[in-house]
């Protein structure tokens, strides 16, 4: 069975947002072989949602919830149809405090998981300066921050890619 395609999260198995599972989806009541592992913002606790109920927005509609916080995208002036696609029809990702979906070129970016320590250490000077400015981090602190970094650790780093210009954007979150 082929997984649905997600425009803003092209490799959800690779990022760990979707994994193989025999669990039954609480939306469609089917065990389809895969389940979403991230958070779902809704009134009720919903633990198991299959990728198909994310893709067709059935889960968002049935449980009146979202997979991503829409506020950062709204603040950036991103079109409502894009916000709906990201928040209601795209698997989110697990972060320590809050998932903040990145944007560029008047569009939401693709999520590409957690970068490696080497990737962060080798950021181009201009990309690093942009990131440090956005995250309010002093350049002297940067080496200390990534010295012991490992994927899944604290702090967490999250990688996004602009669908238009190809620029990589990063987000950092602490426990």
List the keywords.
175 residues, alpha+beta, three-stranded antiparallel beta sheet, 7 strands, 14% strand, globular
Folded structure, characterized:
This protein is α+β, with helices and mostly antiparallel strands and 175 residues long. The chain has one domain. 31% of the residues lie in helices and 14% in strands. The protein has helices spanning 12-15, 51-55, 58-63, 71-75, 80-89, 117-121, 125-135, 139-147; strands spanning 18-20, 34-36, 103-104, 107-108, 110-111, 156-161, 168-173. The chain has a three-stranded antiparallel sheet with strand order 5-6-7. The radius of gyration is 17 Å and the shape is globular. The mean pLDDT is 92.
Quaternary structure classification: single chain
The helix count comes to 8
The largest pleated sheet is described as: 3 strands, antiparallel
What's the β-strand tally? 7
Estimate the mean pLDDT confidence: 92
Task: Find the structural class using helix and strand composition.
Answer: alpha+beta
Portion of residues in beta strands equals 5-15%
Q: Work out the radius of gyration.
A: 17 Å
Shape: globular
Strand order of the largest sheet: 5-6-7
Q: How many domains comprise the coordinates?
A: 1
Short overview:
By secondary structure, this protein is of the alpha+beta class. The chain is built from eight helices and seven strands. The strands form three sheets. Strands 5-6-7 form a three-stranded antiparallel sheet.
List the helices and strands and how they pair.
Layout: H1 12-15, E1 18-20, E2 34-36, H2 51-55, H3 58-63, H4 71-75, H5 80-89, E3 103-104, E4 107-108, E5 110-111, H6 117-121, H7 125-135, H8 139-147, E6 156-161, E7 168-173
Antiparallel strand pairs: 1-2, 3-4, 5-6, 6-7
């Amino acid at each position: 069975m082929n997984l649905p395609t997600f425009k803003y999260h092209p490799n959800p198995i690779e990022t760990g947002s979707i994994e193989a599972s025999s669990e039954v989806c609480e939306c469609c009541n089917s065990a389809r072989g895969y389940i979403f592992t991230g958070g779902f913002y809704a009134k009720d606790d919903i633990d198991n949602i299959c990728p198909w109920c994310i893709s067709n927005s059935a889960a968002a509609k049935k449980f009146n919830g979202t997979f991503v916080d829409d506020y950062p995208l709204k603040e950036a002036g991103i079109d409502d149809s894009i916000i709906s696609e990201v928040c209601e029809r795209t698997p989110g990702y697990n972060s320590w405090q809050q998932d903040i979906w990145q944007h560029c070129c008047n569009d939401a970016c693709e999520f590409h998981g957690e970068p490696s320590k080497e990737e962060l250490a080798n950021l181009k000077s201009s990309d690093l300066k942009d990131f440090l400015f956005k995250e309010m981090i002093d350049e002297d602190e940067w080496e200390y921050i990534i010295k012991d970094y490992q994927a899944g650790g604290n702090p967490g780093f999250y990688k996004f890619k602009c669908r238009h210009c190809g620029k990589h954007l990063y987000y950092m979150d602490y426990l």
